[in-house]
Amino acid sequence: MNGNKVLYERRGAVALLTLNDPERRNALSREIVRGISLALDQALNDGQRAVVIAAAGPAFCAGANIEDLRDGWMECPDPDEDPAVMFKRIAEFDRPVLAAVHGAALGGGMELTLACDLVVAAGSGWFSMPELGRGVIPNTGLALLARLTGVRRAAELILTRRRVSAQEALDMGLVNRVVPGDQVLESALSLAEEIVGAVPPGALKAARLNLHAHMAVDWDRVLKSPLDVPRREWQEGLNAFMQKRPADYGRFWQEGQN
Question: What's the whole-model pTM score?
Answer without folding.
Answer: 0.94
